[in-house]
Amino acid sequence: MKTTLCVLASGLAMAFAGTSAFAASSTAETYQSGFNNDANISQSYNTDATAYIGQEGSLNVASAAQDHSHAKIDISQAGFNNSANAKQHSTSHSNSDIVQKGSMNVANTTQRNGYEQNADVYQAGFNNTANVKQEWTAYSDSTIVQKGDMNVASTDQQNGIGLSADIYQAGFNNSAKAVQNGSWGADSVIVQKGDLNVANTTQKNGFDQSADIYQAGFNNTSNVNQTGSFLSATATQLGSMNVSNITQVGW
């Protein structure tokens, strides 16, 4: 079963009517149960836009895209081998929330050209993957929380101001990576609890950057690489057979 909702908010049809085209609000919701379902919501040119997709089962795909709006995306999936995609472009005061419970699920969030864009991904299970990408945005936050084993979390932030990337993992054999490039006032925090975890943070060509890594367990590895000005890096490891490498190159 495939569900497609294109909500252009009374507005797209009035796109040439002036600023009034941005005065509308829209709410789109879809719920699906079973397997191999496909839900797609698209919203443009709204003062306030809300998109919710709820899916239970397996092999389901949920996609939501919002642009030129004050926007909010909520995607909730329960099962295995599901995929969730959230995209927000040219939005302000916007939030994207993805919650997945199960295994072998994939969550992707992309936010571009915005102000105060926040992305949250929560996954519980094993062998899940979470990716968050933010570009040309100001005062935006990315948070990934994973509970389980063999999960992978990745955050990529490019060319922003006042960016924050947080990754929290609890389990076994998880991997976390945070990349921040060309940013002013960027913070990265990675927290891992468990065994055989790997954490990598890379911050390049920035100003006033901070990177913190906390690991509890054994056989953990953490790497921090920074280039720029006013750099700060901290790696804390509790356990045995841990390796920590910090490289800072200043201007």
For the secondary structure, the number of strands is 16
**Helix and strand composition category:** mainly beta
**H and E order:** EEEEEEEEEEEEEEEE
Low-confidence stretches: 5-21
Proportion of residues in β-strands: over 45%
Please tell me what the overall shape is. flat
Count the DSSP helices.
Answer: 0
Number of domains: 2
pLDDT averaged over residues: 90
Gyration radius (Cα, Å) is 19 Å
- The helix fraction, in percent, is under 10%
- State the major sheet: 16 strands, parallel
Q: Kindly report how far apart the N and C termini lie.
A: 56 Å
Folded structure, characterized:
The protein has a 16-stranded parallel sheet that branches. It folds into two domains: 1-75 and 82-93, no CATH class; 125-251, no CATH class. Helix content is 0%, strand content 77%. The N and C termini lie far apart (56 Å). The chain has strands spanning 2-7, 25-35, 38-58, 61-80, 83-89, 92-103, 106-124, 129-138, 141-147, 152-158, 164-172, 175-181, 184-195, 198-216, 221-238, 243-250. The chain contains no helices and 16 strands. The chain is mainly β and 251 residues long.
Task: Give the key terms.
2 domains, 16-stranded parallel beta sheet, mainly beta, 251 residues, 77% strand
